[in-house]
Design a protein that fits this description.
Structural class: alpha/beta
Order of helices and strands: HEHEHEHEHEHHEHEEHEEHHEE
Helix content: 55-70%
Radius of gyration: 41 Å
CATH superfamily of one domain: Histidine kinase-like ATPase, C-terminal domain
Mean pLDDT: 78
CATH topology of one domain: Heat Shock Protein 90
Low-confidence stretches: none
CATH class of one domain: Alpha Beta
Shape: rod-shaped
């Protein structure tokens, strides 16, 4: 058997064929010659029988005579086409060649036409030719199934990545705790020194009569420092609290909260922060936005120190864009090389060697995506002709 015949045999073997013929001798002969070529070869004695068997079987191809009692072949095909809106391949076998039959065959989009008597090999060749439609239909179904499975896999993968993002966000928070504890120590060191000094002054003044004015001023200073410590502690406690529900807050309050956490350390490092723009309200997760702002300005601080920049300035500006909010964070730390800028929001990408985890900006980007917003960055030239970086935070305003 040559390759072409082998290929034809493989294709035919997979087909389920309905053969409709009213003459018994022809049915017997065809079944004897064709039965072994197909997985399932179904025989019907007339059009009505053929219609019934078609409805009860998943037929791939129909071979039918025209002139038959009860229901002729073309009327049977017509009902199948009309009822099922089916484009199943149809081959007509008939001893008649009248024009009316040919015209109706064309109207029904018959795929093949063979006159009786015919050779079995000739019929097999016609079946093989029209089987392309069947193969194509199967491939389309397989492709649809593949696409459906792929969509499900993509959906599962997205859910998996989201869970990983949540885990990494928590891990990042824990990593930041060490830095936050250092910041707490730094924040509290100076106020505690002041409190200690005031206590010494009060102690020294106890040798004589303590004036009422001095006592009042001293008590007020102690109260202010204690209030500062308490406020700082509340901020740090709230910073790591995960809010399950959105709440209404102002951008100004978020920025002021971040400033409270960083002002002493940034002052020590000679970094000035300028805040301008409108005080806009938003409904969302305040602590999440604090993480993003804090991470960005900490990166600026590291760049100032690493490059030993003398004049260190950060500008935070809020603008309204329609119903939405834009938050810009700019510095004059020299910018980021363009080849690095392309990758700063990628997972595990860092330029800080052993000190960096490569999750800070990635998680900041993820936070903004989850808030239905966006985070982007670009190099800029400031009015002072200095190079810097500008982070743009887009926040979609939601109804309270």
């Amino acid at each position: 058997m040559d390759d072409k015949k082998m290929e034809m045999f493989k294709v035919l073997k997979t087909l389920k064929v309905l053969y409709v013929e009213d003459e018994q001798n022809i049915r017997r002969e065809i079944k004897l010659n064709l039965n072994n070529f197909f997985d399932d070869f179904i025989i019907a004695v007339d059009g009505e029988d053929g219609l019934e068997k078609f409805n009860n079987k998943n037929i791939d191809i129909i071979i039918t005579d025209i002139e038959m009692p009860n229901l002729n072949g073309l009327d049977m095909v017509s009902q199948i086409r009309e009822k099922e809106k089916n484009d199943i391949p149809v081959i007509i076998t008939t001893a008649f060649n009248e024009i009316e039959y040919l015209e109706k065959s064309l109207d029904l989009c018959v795929d093949g036409y063979i006159a009786k008597p015919f050779k079995v090999t000739k019929l097999l060749e016609i079946i093989y030719k029209v089987s392309a439609k069947i193969i194509n239909k199967r491939l389309q179904k397989e492709l649809a199934d593949i696409n459906k499975n792929l969509e499900l896999k993509v959906k599962d993968k997205v859910n998996e990545l989201r869970e990983k993002d949540k885990i990494m966000l928590n891990q990042s928070r824990y990593a930041l705790m060490g830095e936050m504890i250092d910041a707490i120590a730094h924040q509290w060191k100076q106020p505690l020194n002041i409190i200690n000094l005031i206590a010494i002054m009060i102690d020294d003044s106890c040798d004589g009569e303590i004036e009422e004015k001095f006592c009042k001023e001293t008590s007020e200073k102690i109260f202010n420092q204690v209030e500062h410590l308490t406020q700082t502690l509340d901020e740090f406690r709230g910073f790591f609290r995960v809010n399950k529900q959105k709440s209404s807050f102002t951008i100004k309050n978020v920025i002021e909260s971040v400033m409270l956490l960083t002002k002493d350390e940034f002052s020590k490092d000679r970094i000035k922060i300028k805040i301008k723009g409108e005080n806009l309200s938003i409904n969302g997760f305040a602590n999440e936005l604090k993480h993003v702002i804090l991470n960005i300005i900490n990166n600026s601080k590291d760049a100032f120190i690493e490059r030993d920049i003398q004049t260190r300035e950060i500008e935070i500006e809020t603008l309204k864009s329609g119903e939405n909010i834009l938050l810009f964070i700019r510095d004059n730390a020299g910018g980021i090389p363009e080849d690095i800028l392309l990758h700063i929001f990628e997972l595990n990408f860092t330029t800080k060697a052993d000190k960096g985890t490569g999750v800070g900006l990635y998680l900041s980007k993820t936070i903004m995506d989850n808030m239905n917003g966006d985070l982007s960055a670009k190099n800029i030239i400031l009015d002072t002709k200095e190079k810097g970086i500008e982070f743009k935070i887009y926040i979609k305003k939601e109804k309270v």
